[in-house]
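Budget justification note: compute hours in this period were largely spent on complex prediction jobs such as the one shown. Inputs:
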Amino acid sequence: MKAFLQLIKDGFLTTITGSRLYHFWMGFLTLIMLIGAYAYSIQVRDGLAVTAMNDRVSWGLYISNFTFLVGVAAAAVMLVLPTYILKRSEFKRAVLIGEGLAVSALLMCLAFVVADMGSPANLWHMIPGIGVFNWPSSMLAWDVIVLNGYLLINISVPLYILVMHYQDKKPNKKVYLPGVIISVFWAVGIHMVTAFLYAGLIARPFWNSSLLGPRFLASAFAAGPALMILILAAIRKFSNFKIDNKTLKKLALVTTVAAQINLIMLGSELFKEFYRTTHHSLSAQYLFFGLEGKDSLVPWIRTAISMNVVATLILTVNRFRNNMKWIGLSCLLLFVAVWIEKGMGLIVPGFLPGPWGEVVEYAPTWIEIAVTLGIWAMGCFIFTVLAKTAIRIETGDLRYKP
Amino acid sequence: MINLIDLLRKRNGEDVALTNTPKEPCSPTCGCSNEPQSESNDVFSKKLSRREAFKSITAGLVAGYGLVSSSCSITETKSGQDEKQLKWDEYFKGNYKLMTDEEKEATVSRLEKLYEQRNKERINMSAGNALPGVLYGYAFNISKCQGYMDCVNACVEENNQDRDSQMQFIRIHEHKNGSFNFEHAEDNYFHEVPAEGHFYMGTQCFHCENPPCIDVCPVQATWKEDDGIVVVDYDWCIGCRYCMAACPYDGRRFNWSTPEVPQEEVNKNQHYLGNRLRRKGAMEKCTFCIQRSRSGKNPACVEACPTGARVFGNLLDPNSELRWVLKNKKVFRLKEDLGTEPKFWYFMD
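Corresponding output:
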């Protein structure tokens, strides 16, 4: 306990000290967060009318980002599984960073859901015991449980390991392994549940597909590790934390396989939607070609698909997958592509055309964009704090002095 | 028609085996003695006590601040303090679905007092429960509707809908003869009606017997009453809009900003689950004018229709006009393949 308090103190000291570049980075994030908070205060005062959402497109940028980030959080399992259970050494140094990323992504998810609420003051109605929790009927209730549960696991396991390393002790497998095993299944669970949130809606044929869950997993296991590679490369550059090329290349292999599976599923979806177009293909038509002359998402989704295909092709060729420059480029492409595809490219067309055929274009307002950037800045901030402390412990730089 | 017969059987309890949807627990006040009632009562009493505890804990935290600010303020009047207390109790009240009759009366009288304090005018709000032996349904005569939209206006006035955003529960779709595709229908027409070569169809919440919207609500802020009306507890709603995404009929409307109704236009004859004034960030919808239908009147849209295209009534009453229509006309419902069992039929002369 004493060691834990000392760790909090040391961690705090770690976060407030650093290079000029570090302070600039944290100051920059704080500024973005403050702008986001200001925009959110306007939204709280005037209601969701300040967003571009309406009775037709009733979920927008917030829920898009939420959906995408659930995938990023779930992708931590791609490091956890090989390290703790399959005992592969390649990811050992990266796994804590992966869990830190999961924690940050989950907190961003929760923030996006709260930002999307029309009556945030009523959120206590969801707390079991004092509120009414519509479980197991509502998939949103399921999502609240799985996201918070996953958050809890991803905080406790790495925290235990770090506290032990901090005291120069060896973590006891019996303590953390059960949590790790649960987290592997739980990671798949959070993403399937999030997919079911949409797939369960008979009113929206674009989402009401049995492929949605598996496709969510495939795209998450492509985009998540892609982001990990970029982050690890950055950490390697800005700190003395050693990460082998071998680790990054192994991660690139994971990314490649997931991206390939994702493309197969995309092809399957496109075939079903466009071989014989029906009433139920209208959303896909809106997304890829536009409807009634309204086509604001078309350039986005075409860019996303192109980036996706190019990145997957690059990664598929052995020679490129073993070259760090090409890996970096394709990871960046994949990350952005999946963000578009699984964010706005999934949520907005689900609502269009409306039940009676209306097509209304959606483009986020500055308030939505500012709140969104604010939440992303919050995520980066949290991740930086977690990663910096974890790295100092892992490198042996930070140790408990009783 | 088989669906309707099933529906009526279900409601009359003649053949429970036909019920393939899980039986919902009755509201604690419905008076019938099926099992889930006691269960929900148990849950309810626990919830209440926990919420009371939560309320008093929070009250303790805020009381200090409140005491200081009110005792230091000379402008704070007695009625101002009353209003704070009322608002406080309103914020911590429970879900209407789970309230006892006394609690329902208590919240309604609080809301009446709050309105009177703010607007120096009295409103009359009801907490009336579903009448026994009643299951409401609706039929729409496509041959008669001429697209005058008097129903739409009557609905807005009756139900105190936001005038700023021009919220409307009813949509009238103008179809070209020869087409029955809603994608090609015109929902916003600004020309003289009836237009040559067109026919008109109204849609609104269909009060499905198997509504997809109520399952998805994470806090049970929306449910189907015993008389078949799908309602929203505007104060319990958290504003996530999941129900809106789940509705295949565009039956729900969201208050994106604070709804504005000029005071002189407010309909003061209100029901808690119906046309009482709403707040921003809450979902709302057609309630078959619950404040009217539960006191034996027709909904405003039925009353306002100049052509008699709208028929409202009790599906359990074999002598109702609605049952006559269902028996003697060829009726259909929209998107029946989704299994939602709307209680809203269309027919032609």
